[in-house]
Amino acid sequence: MTTATHPYDALMDITARPKAVFVRGAGSYLWDDGRKRYLDFVQGWAVNCLGHSPPGIADALAAQAKRLLTPSPAFYNEPSLKLAQALVANSAFDQVFFANSGAEANEGAIKLARKYGSLHKGGAFEIISFEGGFHGRTLATMSASGKKAFEPLFEPKVSGFKKAKLNDIASVEKLINANTVAVMLEPIQGESGVWPATDQFLKELRALTEAHGLLLIFDEIQTGMGRTGKLFHYEHTGISPDIMTLGKGIGGGVPLAALLATERASCFEHGDQGGTFNGNPIMCAAGLAVLEEVAKPDFLKQVAETGLLLESELQKVSARHGLGGVRGRGLLLALDLKLPIAPGIVAQAFEAGVLLNAPQVDTLRFMPALNVTRAEIAEMIDCLDAILTKAGAARRVA
C-alpha cells in the first residue's frame, strides 16, 4: 500500500500497524506526520526508560559519534569498558558481554549455559524454562519460550528445552535429570500478560538449582534497568542468579543488550562468542547515560512510588467498571479486563491520542517512561475511564 506521502509496501508486512507515521518524540509524548500528539504508555515495549529522545542520551550519542563509531570488537573501546565496569559495580555479577538485542543476549545465555554443561556437568545441555515465557525470536530463544503461537512455527525447533509451570516448584523439580544444566525464566512474564513469579518461588528456585548444581538464569530484558523499582528485579528477592540478561531499557531507545554472569558461570573461550557490532562505543555511550540516571537512589524511589500510584489508579478503574485485578510491579503493570476487549480499547485509545498495549485479548499492559509524571498518569486514566464507560453503556444497551 502507498499513500501520497509514504510507501508502506517496501517494508515486510510482519505485524498490523496503524497508518500514522511518527516523526518526533519528547518525554512521554510522540507526534505523527499530521502533528497529532500521543501520550505513550508503551514506550517501545519498555525500551524508552527515560522517555523519548531524552537530552542525556541524545547528547551522549552525538558526542560519541564525533569521536568514534566503532574500532571493531577485536579491540577495546572506552565506553564499553566503562559500562561493563559500571554494571558489575551495581550488580551481583563479575563479567559482561554486550549484544544488540534481548534475543541475542538470551541466545548468549543459552550458549553460556551449554558451554558450562560441557565443561563442568558431563555434557549436560537441557534448560528448564516456563510455560508462558518469552525469550526472543531467534530459533533457540523461540524454543526456550513457552508461547503457544510459536509452537507450529519454523520447525524443527532447537531441542533441549523443557517447560515447567510458573510458581510451581514441584513442576521444576520433576524435570531435572542428568542432562539438566540450567533453569531460565523472566521474573515477570511480560508477553503472556504480566504474570509475576513470586519472591518465594524465586527463592525456592535458587535453593533448588544450588542443590542440583544448576545455573539460574534471569531474563531481565523487560524487568531490568529500574522497571520494577529496583535497578534489577532480582534485588527484590534477596537472592541472585548466576546469569542475567538485559535489553530494552539499557539502551534507552537504541539497540543495546547485555549478558552478565558470575565468575563461576563465565566460561566462554576465545572464539566461542562474538558479534560485529557488539559493545560498539556509540551504543555503550547511550547505556552509560541511562545507567547514570537510573541507578540514582532517588530515581528508583520515584519509580517505586509512581508505580504504586499507577497501580492504585488502575485498581480504581477496575472497581468502577467491574474488571479484574492489577498485576505486576513498579512500572510494569497489567489490568485484567475479564473480557476479550483489549484490542478494541487499544484502537480507541489510539484514536484519542493515547498509546496502550494488549499482550492478550483480555489484558492491557502499561509500560510508561520511568520518569512519567502524575499528570500524565491522570491523562491516561481519564482516557481509559472514558473508553470503558462508553463500552459499558454499549453492553447495557445490547
UniProtKB/TrEMBL annotation:
Q: Which cofactor does it need?
A: pyridoxal 5'-phosphate
Co-factor note (free text): Binds 1 pyridoxal phosphate per subunit.
**Annotated positions binding pyridoxal 5'-phosphate:** G102, A103, F134, D219, E220, I221, Q222, T276
Binding positions (N(2)-acetyl-L-ornithine): R137
Reactions the enzyme catalyzes: N(2)-acetyl-L-ornithine + 2-oxoglutarate = N-acetyl-L-glutamate 5-semialdehyde + L-glutamate
The GO annotation for biological process reads: L-arginine biosynthetic process
Keyword Zinc appears in the UniProt entry: no
Q: Where in the cell is it found?
A: Cytoplasm
List residues modified as N6-(pyridoxal phosphate)lysine: K248
- EC numbers on record: 2.6.1.11
User: Which pathway, metabolic or otherwise, does it act in?
Assistant: Amino-acid biosynthesis; L-arginine biosynthesis; N(2)-acetyl-L-ornithine from L-glutamate: step 4/4
Q: Which family does it belong to?
A: Belongs to the class-III pyridoxal-phosphate-dependent aminotransferase family. ArgD subfamily.
Name of the molecule in the record: Acetylornithine aminotransferase
Q: Which organism is it from?
A: Bradyrhizobium stylosanthis
Protein's gene:
argD
